[in-house]
Write a structure and sequence with these properties.
The structure is a homodimer of 460-residue chains. Chain A is α/β, with parallel strands linked by helices. Chain A contains 14 helices and 14 strands. In chain A, the strands form three sheets. In chain A, strands 3-9-8-7-6-4-5 form a seven-stranded mixed sheet, with helices on both faces. In chain A, strands 10-11-14-13 form a four-stranded antiparallel sheet. A three-stranded mixed sheet of chain A has the order 1-2-12. In chain A, strand 10 and strand 11 form a beta hairpin. The longest helix of chain A has 28 residues. The first copy, chain A, is globular, with a radius of gyration of 23 Å. The N terminus and C terminus of chain A are likely disordered. At the A-B interface, helix 1, helix 2, helix 3, helix 4 and helix 5 of A face helix 1, helix 2, helix 3, helix 4 and helix 5 of B.
Chain lengths: 460, 460
């Protein structure tokens, strides 16, 4: 492909047909059909070519919004209040305001700016920055550019722009060679599965992680680089679909607040219905300060509480600040999800997947293990990274698309209207793949007596 | 407006009607019509509600691309090579490749990542990063997170996310309270206008700035924070429409190359026809390494040279990496610009504006001064910031929208099909505003003998 970097092309498995793909069926450029449970990295909410969505955006009014695209920060379209109302009606617990932006990374960058600005204002007792701050920030020096930090967790993913990348901690390959803020990372609880069989150990693990988090606050204060904000995903997606108990997150919010830090929740991947509630953090039944959304909502941005009104308006600004088209889409999606009770569907079909994971664990002697998740946001682990990669390849050969995450997990990110039949079809194909791999493995094991079975134990 | 931060609302002057606005006429929500020369912060290429653009995106194929939105880095649409061809056909001098992204800030962040990655690979003689780099980057420490810098210029604007904001240097209000990389800023040549009357002084000023730039390279090396990339706008937009001679930029490219740094050009605002060539940097007749585009092109991203193919593909990646819809729009815009010879129009109508600036200078005894620009990318200065603000308000009252920039300048960023009649209409209104202000000022001056006329001299 002329003009496309061949190295980048190397990462592209194939191209797909946006016109012929339909529902959960991705059609590639040769006409081959795949059952897609990964849906463009978890970003398609209602399947390919949803006709209702298409009809909505085909209206003359919406087409005008596209070609007469407003710079929403200064020249908003007259429809903006109406466009924001549906999103606000499903706001996460405790959130009253919304800030629209263009993509997940930008959203996280601006959410952190909002947090840092809030922290700085509070530290000054609500006063605006002084002249010395205005002068020194032009050289990137304190006090204007304060040496304050965001605390994130080992295994997290928050984006790849400089601020968000400094927090991201899931893979070194995406961080290496880039200048970064030297910000602290707390350990994320490494839970044992199934959760209900390891409650005591898991609770101890969580307590330990919270203790270390508090230690990091103390160390940061001593070091002269106080932690102004804490950011966490309700379930670490890229990091391997790892989740702690709801109690852990509640306690973490307390730790952040006790230390004067802003609590930011990154729901770019977990949000907008994927876990069976609109927001995965709603399971916690405790409000944080900022919640980021993107992907399935098509529109991106963050919700925030009443407190943040105090933030100076100049901080969060760029040319477009989101796009009316994407708000129209988000609103239509909200309408369809509510009308068709798709959150119920997410919970029901998610259970079909989780039952399937247990079945696969049974038929592979634990080679497949640690089935986990909430709603359709599910994953299981495979004994080794190599077996995981083989299983993805084998599924692909059988026309099933699944996603990888962590070191040896397979994740599911289907649309919210993924059906039980499709879930059973996916589990059927994966069970075949797992059986074949397990069978091959057994043959190898029987032939090579040095084979180890250690890799078969649950990984997290 | 419920759910909209009241402080943010405070910055919104009014809302506009995306359906009724047409061409260069913005219609607000009360039906009032404005001649718009600022066009959503320089981002509308062919006027409001361009019917050809609307017809193009109304096709079933494009609507499918919108609702079946691809994650372009891994699952590109089959049409991608065709979608990229027109953009590549107008690539800046020396550029063979393109990387699509979602907005201006993201584009600059990723362009810098590309530059840093390239620099790090070169420093290691083309070898991949070692295990120590992979380990240390997970804590944001060297060698994995190297202490390398980007050099930008005083007065520049490159965006407001953490990486781009560290480089941005036009206004302290947008930098203050945010953690920042402590990266160096070179002085930008302060030219005297009209340029042809001050050639010798201006050349001396440019030589001095280049000398300081080289000094900053030397200091950075000594300090252990080498400069890996240089970034510059061909005309500083937010910073006051300041431009150096083409010779300055050519020499700057040499300085960057001689010091082993990557040369990045930020054409987010100057690019895509605004200056009468597709790229303002094409006037230099010398290739840089990376050129960023956004705004008028609707699609965003950066062009780069053959050298950058060597960059590892994992660096530049996110979920969407641009959007097919925006590429379809960009391509149609290119087609219309070429068919209707709009670059010629930009140069012709830009001259009408510049002649108007001279006229206003004449009738205001220099209260309006320093008319400048290339193509339609034009601006003039007003004697004081207060008079500038009054002039913008007065123009608004007479149904004309212009933009502010720098401390006391007024900028024009009309669409590429802005007509001579519209330009004359704009100059007519502004001349009235200027005359009135000049008249008021004279009255004040005659009544208050302490009034100073120092503010009337050319500002840059």
């Amino acid at each position: 492909m002329e003009g496309l970097n061949p190295q980048i092309l190397g990462t592209m498995r194939w191209t797909f047909d946006t016109t012929k793909s339909k529902g959960s069926t991705l059609v590639d450029d040769t006409g081959r059909e795949f059952l897609d449970t990964f849906m463009q990295i978890s970003s398609i909410p209602l399947g390919y070519n949803n006709e209702e969505l298409k009809a909505t955006i085909a209206s003359d009014e919406v087409l005008s919004m596209i070609v007469s695209r407003p710079a929403m920060g200064v020249f908003p379209p007259a429809e903006l209040p109406n466009l924001l109302r549906p999103a606000l009606s499903i706001a996460p617990l405790g959130m009253q305001y919304i800030q629209t932006l263009m993509c997940g990374s930008c959203t996280v960058e601006n959410a952190m700016k909002s947090a840092f600005g809030f922290y700085a204002y509070n530290k000054r007792g609500g006063k605006p920055p002084g002249m010395d701050a205005h002068t020194s920030c032009m050289d990137g020096m304190a006090p204007g550019s304060p040496n304050i930090a965001a605390l994130s967790f080992r295994g997290c993913f928050h984006g790849r722009t400089f601020g968000s990348l400094s927090m991201t901690n899931s893979k070194s390959a995406i961080k290496v060679d880039m200048p970064a803020f030297e910000w602290p990372h707390a350990p994320f609880p490494q839970m044992k599965y199934p959760l209900h069989e390891h409650e005591r150990e898991n609770a101890e693990e969580e307590a330990k992680c919270l203790e270390i988090t508090q230690d990091l606050f103390d160390q940061a204060e001593k070091k002269g680089q106080p932690i102004a904000a804490v950011i966490i995903e309700p379930i670490q997606g890229e990091g391997g679909d790892a989740r702690a108990s709801d109690d852990f997150y509640r306690k973490l919010i307390d730790v952040a607040r006790d230390n004067g830090a802003v609590m930011v929740v990154d729901e770019v991947q977990t949000g907008f219905g994927a876990t069976g509630k609109w927001w995965a953090s709603d399971y916690w039944e405790k409000s944080s300060d900022i919640v980021c959304y993107a992907k399935k909502s098509q529109a991106c941005g963050f919700f925030y509480t009443d407190d943040f009104k105090a933030n100076p308006e100049t901080r969060i600004f760029n040319t477009w600040m989101g796009e009316p088209l994407k708000l129209v889409m988000m609103n239509k999606i909200i309408e369809i999800v509510q009308r068709d009770r798709l959150l119920d569907n997410v919970n029901r079909v998610g259970q079909v997947l989780q039952d399937g994971f247990v079945h696969m664990e049974d038929i592979t002697g634990g080679m497949v293990n640690s089935g986990r998740g909430r709603g359709l946001y599910t994953a299981f682990s495979v004994a080794t990274p190599e077996l995981r990669d083989k299983m993805i390849k084998s599924a692909f050969d059988k026309n099933l698309i699944v996603g990888a995450c962590g070191t040896s997990s397979i994740r599911f990110r289907p649309s919210l209207n993924f059906s039980s039949d499709e879930a059973e079809q996916a589990i059927g194909i994966l069970s075949d793949c797992a059986s074949e791999l397990y069978h091959d493995k057994q043959i190898i094991k029987n032939n090579i007596t040095t084979g180890s079975s250690a890799g078969l134990s649950a990984q997290r």
